[in-house]
Structure formats: C-alpha cells, structure tokens
Amino acid sequence: MPRLLRMAARTAVVAGTATAVSGRVQRRQARKYQEEQAPEPEPYQQQQAVPEQRSAPDTSDKLEQLKSLGELKTQGVLTEAEFAAEKAKILAS
Fold it and tell me: Closest Cα to residue 82, out of 69, 64, 63?
C-alpha cells in the first residue's frame, strides 16, 4: 500500500508541475502575442515651445554679394533683369 501511495503522490506532483508550467507558457505566449499586436507607443516628448533661434543677418556677406553682382552687371555678364532678380534673392534671404 505505501508503494501505491508514493506512486500516486509522485503522479500528482508531476501532473501539478506540468499544469503549472503549461499555464505559465500559455500566459507568456499570450503576453508576447499581445505585445506584437499592440502599436508601439510613441516615446515621451516634452511639448515645450522651443524658442526659435535666429541669428542676425550677416550684412557684410550680403554687401559683398551685392558688390560682386554689381561688378558682373558693369562687365556686361548680367542683364538688367538678371541683376534685379539676383539682387531680390540676396535681399530676401
């Protein structure tokens, strides 16, 4: 009789362990499946307004560009219309 009791207890332990492991595997697979199906959350971003940093326009650079443009016009490389268009581009930037 004790042998039969030990065998029944061993069987119960093995069955209980197998059930516990099986349940854990099922929960892990379900969680993995849900993570794959869920959209990836966007990373947290602070929504503070960052002040736009503008540097002062480099007037000496613009002046040099206008001077070289004027020289090209006096040399006849640029027409009056081309000079006016390029001048407007330089002054607009």
Answer: 69
Question: How far is Cα 5 from Cα 17, in angstroms, rounded to an integer?
Answer: 18
Count of positions (residues) in the chain: 93
Contact 90, 76 (CB under 8 A): no
Contact 78/69 with Cβ under 8 angstroms?
yes
Rounded CA separation 10/44 (Å): 52
Site of tokens 């268009």: 85
Helix or strand or coil: residue 39? coil
Alpha helices in the chain (DSSP H): 2-37, 59-74, 80-92
Is the pTM for the entire model greater than 0.85? no
What pLDDT sits at residue 84? Answer: 92
**What is the phi-psi region of residue 76: left when phi exceeds 0, alpha when psi lies from -120 to 50, beta otherwise?**
left
